[in-house]
Sequence to fold (308 residues):
Amino acid sequence: MAPDLLLRPAVAPVPVGLAGAGPWARAVHAPTLAAGPETRLAGVWSRTTARADALARAHDAPSLASFDALLEVCDAVALAVPPAVQPELAVRAARAGKTLLLEKPLAPDVDGARRVVDAIDEAGVGSVVLLTYRFADVVRDFLAAADTFDATGGRACFLSSAFLSGDFAAGWRLEQGALLDVGPHILDLVDVALGPVVAVQAGGDPLGWVGLLLEHERGARSEVTISCTAGIDPSRTEVELFGPGGTLFVDARSGARARSFATLRRELAETVQSGGGHPCDARRGLHLQRLVDAAHRALGGTRVEVST
Fold:
């Protein structure tokens, strides 16, 4: 080993506090952050104390009595909370100088998402939105290829049975529907692959099946299908581009999830150290919130331009 490597100090793992103890926090946030080496789970807080206690105990971390107490023990905060709760906590964490790992959607509406972005900008802290597929190698390879692919159009889908049974068939997801819940995931991929979406037409029911016709800045068109009440297994998250040179396709769910979350953990730690600059930051989340809002308004049968 080279002498300079022997003398170089080890980088301490970033302490990350977790707000929330629901199914996604239990399945993803806590095990990912606790696994290291780039991060350590510094503590867990939830409005449901018993769930916070159980989750913290499972990962050998403290359970905190308040959100303020959580802020005191970490450099970054991971929010695994409903959209209606996230803006208030995100603003408080940003003002406390903490890097944020945010859920999608940022908020129930565009105004709430803008509040989050404004607070982050004012505080000068970094942020990462947990757009799961963007951390998968297979998706990153597809998007890199799409950057030079001459596409005239595309199709995409996010189809699952998540709202039929299980942990996610409850609460705000069933009340608001798939467009707000999983729409940001598939709209993000299509928007990057074909260029920014500038207008939307839509039909269907967010609680059942939604079809979108998107117009992209570079002139391409795409069709996107979204449903979480399709009784299929496995679920599908797919994007395919078409052009004079043929097709370009990705099965986003084929990415190795464990490896994707390891990439997320590493890049969150890098964002803490750099102070920002991640492509999936809160501003990206705000753009996706505007796309979802435009799609909802287009369900009335009109063509809706995306606000900027």
